[in-house]
């Protein structure tokens, strides 16, 4: 009988690849929505030093076994340092993803609703969401599950089909082929990347208009000061000329 453990590599020498060779998404729409929602969440948690937002990198969950891995479309980990990671090693980080979103399609449905969902439940992912942007197979197109004990429980949707993520404090809803989110506490919508770009552009335009207005005010004030100085100078010269004339006239009357 062969002792297979004797031929195993030391744990320190095990290679964990950074890519599994799989495409990021099935279509441009799936890729766009994956990127957009990741960036939306990243902007929300930018000030938080202990929230990591990522997606499409590999999560390894068994030390020494590179085959034990998966790659969520978008995920959030609460309770670890915010820094860039090439891969995510669960035994080093010590914290599983808190939230996972799969931008799903008919081609990935069996994996998203089956193996990946079961794995996330086993690893202790507190919330697992599915979003089918094209309405290709999932009805309703947005579904959320929260971990209750050792099982996932379907999060009941609202009247508009929106589903709340309690761990993130946001409420998500489908808008056309897009996924939108609102801060539950404030009621403020989370801006998507294109909306953030437009808002920044408008803000820059307003700031430039304010600068231009301030420059114009300064120029007008400078012009008024120059005109005032010129008027004062003319008045002073006239007063001096008048005084000189009076002096001359007074001197003639004495003669």
Overview of this structure, please?
The chain has 255 residues and is an alpha+beta fold. The chain has two domains: 11-190, tt1808, chain A (Alpha-Beta Complex), CATH 3.90.1570; 191-255. It is 38% helix and 20% strand. Strands 1-4-6-7-8-9 form a six-stranded mixed β-sheet, with helices on both faces. A three-stranded mixed β-sheet has the order 3-2-5. A three-stranded antiparallel β-sheet has the order 10-11-12, with no helix packed on it. Strand 6, helix 3 and strand 7 form a beta-alpha-beta unit. The longest helix has 62 residues, at 193-254. Mean pLDDT is 87; it is low at 1-7.
Helix-strand pattern, N to C? HEEEEEHEHEEEEEEH
DSSP strand tally: 12
Low-pLDDT segments, ≥5 res: 1-7
Largest sheet: spatial strand order? 1-4-6-7-8-9
Largest sheet: 6 strands, mixed
| Structure annotation, total helices | 4
End-to-end separation: 144 Å
CATH-level-2 architecture of the largest domain: Alpha-Beta Complex
Summarize the structure.
The chain has 255 residues and is α+β, with helices and mostly antiparallel strands. The protein is 38% helix and 20% strand. β10 (163-165) and β11 form a beta hairpin.
List strands and helices in order, with pairings.
Elements: H1 28-44, E1 51-54, E2 59-60, E3 69-70, E4 74-78, E5 88-89, H2 90-93, E6 99-103, H3 109-123, E7 127-131, E8 142-148, E9 151-154, E10 163-165, E11 170-175, E12 178-183, H4 193-254
Parallel strand pairs: 2-5, 6-7
Antiparallel strand pairs: 1-4, 2-3, 4-6, 7-8, 8-9, 10-11, 11-12
């Amino acid at each position: 009988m062969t002792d297979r453990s004797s031929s195993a590599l030391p744990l320190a020498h095990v290679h964990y690849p950074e890519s599994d060779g799989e495409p990021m998404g099935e279509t441009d729409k799936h890729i766009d929505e994956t990127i957009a929602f990741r960036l939306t969440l990243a902007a929300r948690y930018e000030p938080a030093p202990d929230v990591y937002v990522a997606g499409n990198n590999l999560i390894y969950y068994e030390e020494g076994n590179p085959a034990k891995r998966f790659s969520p479309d978008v995920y959030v980990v609460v309770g670890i340092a915010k820094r860039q990671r090439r891969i995510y090693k669960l035994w080093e980080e010590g914290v599983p993803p808190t939230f996972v979103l799969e931008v799903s399609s008919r081609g990935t449905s069996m994996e998203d609703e089956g193996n990946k969902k079961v794995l996330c439940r086993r690893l202790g992912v507190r919330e697992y969401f599915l979003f089918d942007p094209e309405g290709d197979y999932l009805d309703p197109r947005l579904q959320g599950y929260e971990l209750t004990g050792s099982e996932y429980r379907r999060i009941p949707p609202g009247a508009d089909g929106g589903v709340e993520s309690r761990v993130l404090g946001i409420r998500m809803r489908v808008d056309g082929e897009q996924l939108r989110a609102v801060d539950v506490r404030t009621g403020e919508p989370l801006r998507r990347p294109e909306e953030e770009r437009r808002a920044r552009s408008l803000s820059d335009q307003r700031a430039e208009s304010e600068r231009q207005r301030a420059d114009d005010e300064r120029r007008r004030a400078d012009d008024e000061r120059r005109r005032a100085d010129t008027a004062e100078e003319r008045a002073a010269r006239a007063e001096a000329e008048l005084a000189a004339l009076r002096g001359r006239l007074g001197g003639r009357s004495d003669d």
